[in-house]
Amino acid sequence: MFKRFREDLANVFDQDPAARSKLEVILTYSGLHAIWNYRVAHWFWKKHCFFIGRVWSQFGRFMTGIEIHPGAVIGRRFFIDHGTGIVIGETCEIGNDVTVFQGVTLGGTGKEKGKRHPTIGNDVLISCGARVLGAITIADHSKIGAGSVVLHNVPANSTVVGIPGRIVRQNGLKVHAHDLDHTHLPDPVSDKLTELTQQICDLRELVMATHIEPKEGHSKNDAWEAGRYFINKF
Question: Which end of the chain has the lower number of beta carbons within 10 A, N or C?
Answer without folding.
Answer: N
